[in-house]
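Worked example (supplementary).
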Amino acid sequence: MTQAVRHNSMRARNLGVVLGEVRRSGPVTRAALAEITGLTKTTVSKMVGDLIEAGMVTESGALRDGERGRPGTAVALSGRRVAALGLEINVDYLSACVVDLTLAVRLRYTQAVDNRTSSPVETLSHLEELAHRAVDEAHGEGLSIAGSTLAVPGPVDGGLVHAAPNLGWHDVRVSDLLDFPVEVDNEANLAALGELWFGSVPGDFLHVSGEIGVGAGLVVGGTLFRGARGLAGELGHVVVSPDGPACRCGGRGCLEQYAGQDALLRAAGLAGVPDGVSTLLAHLHAGERDSLEACERAGQALGVALTSAVHLMDPGTIVLGGVFARLFPWIRGSAHKTMTSRLGVMRRAVPELTVSRLGGDAATLGAAGQVIHRVIADPWSHL
Amino acid sequence: MTQAVRHNSMRARNLGVVLGEVRRSGPVTRAALAEITGLTKTTVSKMVGDLIEAGMVTESGALRDGERGRPGTAVALSGRRVAALGLEINVDYLSACVVDLTLAVRLRYTQAVDNRTSSPVETLSHLEELAHRAVDEAHGEGLSIAGSTLAVPGPVDGGLVHAAPNLGWHDVRVSDLLDFPVEVDNEANLAALGELWFGSVPGDFLHVSGEIGVGAGLVVGGTLFRGARGLAGELGHVVVSPDGPACRCGGRGCLEQYAGQDALLRAAGLAGVPDGVSTLLAHLHAGERDSLEACERAGQALGVALTSAVHLMDPGTIVLGGVFARLFPWIRGSAHKTMTSRLGVMRRAVPELTVSRLGGDAATLGAAGQVIHRVIADPWSHL
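After joint prediction of all chains, the assembly is encoded as:
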């Protein structure tokens, strides 16, 4: 390693240490940053200068420094320049959002489109348009996009979407079909990270993404559990009844066949109705019996699958997101009752069922948030 | 912090660093230890002296030091003094083992006893006898017991066995009923650690403990996954069929009701037969039809539960232990077939089913191994 390379690697490390501390403690004075990080004041000042130039931090008015009693200038994260693009392809919509370095949401687009009837190339071409629109508008606001992550409804293994059965995708390498660089991750994983960073639930939960597919992401101690190959959390294919209806995954009686959005609408007699979930909600509010029963039965199946998930994964709480968040008042009761009757003897406390406030945006927000967290961990690579 | 306390805390840390490195790299010279750890040669020599005195390391003949070409004395872990006691209470046996600091197994006892018919106090009094016998024999060999861990067949929450349904235990605080200090942990967790430290499978697997109860322990990257409250891995109560036979856990159709040892013997027409598993094995070898069918059906149920576990936890491989290890040739086929047909579309590779070489000893070995790993991480507390 030459001396210059070693010097750069040390600067890169220090820059990450300083920016990380600004995120945790900001607004914070340079003196306090030096004290917390153990770096010299000269180093801290140099790093802060670089970060100001990169538009990652900003200096605000005088802040009294508690330790020393002298006023100093406060340094805080800046949302004015660096931002990230979060994207999602789901079965019946595309969405995009732009989040700045302070995790403030700057733009959101959602476009209803049935991606089951189009090829991966067509769907990704629609996504490209949406992404370009979002990036153009972000540029108009003076933002620069540091990177983007795309959420897809299926397991992702090294950038390859091996199977997204609800989209009809097999072995699609997304990055080959887009004209901008993107990282691809599973929708349920990113929704769990969205809940962690943008939601209201503390760091130990199983986030359940109810869409046409059903997925889950387990967060333990503030970290997403991914399993050995990054394929953990496929709650939608947990077996509810081994001889139940055939599922697109090749199995039978998977949770999706009882509590996925399509199954739910079918059970409520609303299959194929445009904007079926809104119609279902109207029926539920009106006390329509088929709709109430469909939700109760979906809640029971969800309770059975969550019983297996709790026995295996031991989550702190369970957060219902996506369509389950909208239907929460009508599915919570039977899901909770099923879990309590099955888990009560073995556990002193059955995990609480709560509702996500993010609804359908969780995955897109998590996708953008993932980029922001990487920028903060390694600002040097984004200067 | 006084200077003396700070000095002791630094010595404690350095002692752990040196002993850890001896475990990883030993036999190793003092010079090499200094180079790897970054400690001065004087500090390393002092630490090695303390560890020799404590009987934790030993000095062997000259070892040529590759770096410098000078011969040095090699330092290695010693199995001569420090040891750990591993204990297990299971439904139909008690067991104990003593493992020394090099993880060599020094003593093993297993005692067949039906713990369903005795109270926690009686069972723990039998265990006490077994433990004292093991400790006495270990003392006779010059070993000193640094600590003990007890494996129990049920979830353990902060030392409390809330429910071990197969033992009929509820809210038993084991340490209050024993005359020696012991840490209590779940049998399936400790069996997974036993497989990690004493078995032959690398660091990413789900270890399934088939006994009268069925449990599992997930190891990811060489670390046991415990969940939010340490209650993860209860594979035996994963729902195979939601309206199936009632289980002692309060649920219905749990895996244990299809593939637990009692259920298997019942299905094979061997309920209540003394040493039923050996009889079952004899029948299987003889090609007896009821026994073959019982194993095939148990394998199918195991395949359904493992399908849910793979979807949720994404293990590297799956290791079958306990009674499943003895029955492996007769349950593997149907379990593998069930998993492949259900998982094949979603995953490029279905996790391999392998067999544990440790059999029924995994939990007891893991219990002792856990103590040894703690001694090596913090030798100062055990001087």
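Two points are worth noting when inspecting this output. Chain A has a mean pLDDT of 92. Residues 140 and 301 of chain A are 47 Å apart (CA to CA).
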